[in-house]
Amino acid sequence: PCPSSSGVTTLGTSFPKSGSSRSSDLGVAPTPCRVDPRPDSGLGSTPLPSSRFRFASWQHLEHCDVTGDQLSCPRVREGLSEDQVFERDACLEGQSWEERLQENWENCLELNLSYQDLGDPFQRQNFLRILRRLIRVEKLQLVSDCLTDLSSVRLPRCKMLNLQQNHLVGLRQLPKLPVVEHLCLSENAIGSLGGLGALGKAPLRSLSLVRNPVSFTADYRAR
Questions:
Q1: What average pLDDT does this structure show over 194-222?
Q2: Domain limits at 192?
Q3: Domain CATH number, residue 170
Q4: Which listed residue, 19, 27, 133, 217, has the most CB atoms within 10 A of its CB?
Q5: Has residue 48 been placed in a domain?
Q6: Which stretches within the chain are classed as H helix?
Q7: In this structure, is the dihedral angle defined by the CA atoms of residues 24, 6, 168 and 178, taken in order, positive or negative?
Q8: pLDDT tens figures, 83-107
Q9: Residue 13 lies in a domain
C-alpha cells in the first residue's frame, strides 16, 4: 500500500456514512456520539453522525467515505520524506489531489483545528491552505496553535471564532471577518486597539481580550 498523502490525520474520531458495512469488521457498535467542548472554548457542542471508526487508524481504512468536515479535531501532520513523496506520486497517478485527501473544507460549517503542532513548513502551509478553503464555516476553533498572522485568510461566513492562547500581537493580524458575532482573543500578546476599525461593520456582539497587554492600558474598557 502507498503511504497516505492526506494533509490531516484522524487520531481522534472520524465517521463514515450511516449503514456502512465496514463497521462490523471493526466490532464497534454504531452508537451516536457527541463531542464535549472544552470549558474555555466558548463554542457549543457539535453533534456527530457516528463513532464506528473511533479506534481505527486512518492508514488501515483502505476505502473510506470520511471527509475533513466530519472529523472532530483534524491534525495537520508533518510532511513526507522525498522517498515517500515519490512513492505516493507513483501510487496516485491519474487520481486528483482532492480526491485522495478526501477533503470537503468548502462545505464545512463547524471545525476544531486547535492544538496543532505546526513546527514543519509543510504543516504551516497546509494549515493556511485549509483555512482559505473554509468559505462556509460558521464556528471555528483555533486554540493554542502558535498563530502570529492570519491577515491573508478570509472567513466570509464565520460567526464565532476562538483564537485563544496564540501569539497575535495586534488586531491587524486577524483574518477578514465580515459577519463575526463572537470573537475570543484572550491570552494573546495584543498591545493596542489599533486595527479594531476593521471589525466596525461586523455585527460583533462579544469580544474577549482577557490577559492581553492591551487590557491594562488607560481607558481600555471605555474604548
A1: 91
A2: 57-79+98-216
A3: 3.80.10
A4: 133
A5: no
A6: 23-26, 82-91, 97-101, 121-132
A7: negative
A8: 666 565 555 555 555 555 567 889 8
A9: no
Q: Name the burial class of residue 94, with classes exposed (0-12), middle (13-18) and buried (19+) by CB atoms within 10 angstroms of its CB.
A: exposed
The cell for 22 is 465496514
CA dihedral 98, 103, 108, 112 (to 10 degrees): -140
* Rounded average pLDDT over 162-185: 96
- Please give the model's pTM, rounded to 2 decimal places: 0.61
Number of other residues whose CB lies within 10 A of the CB of residue 52: 24
Q: Which three cell numbers stand for residue 39?
A: 470549558
| DSSP assigned state of 176 | B
Residue 211 zone, left/alpha/beta (φ > 0; ψ -120 to 50; rest) = left
Q: Can you name the residues that pair with 46 across neighbouring β-strands?
A: 35
Alpha-carbon gap, residue 148 to 127, rounded angstroms: 13
Residue 155 lies in a domain: yes
Joined together, the cell numbers standing for residue 42 give: 466558548
For the chain, report the end-to-end CA distance as a whole number of angstroms. 59
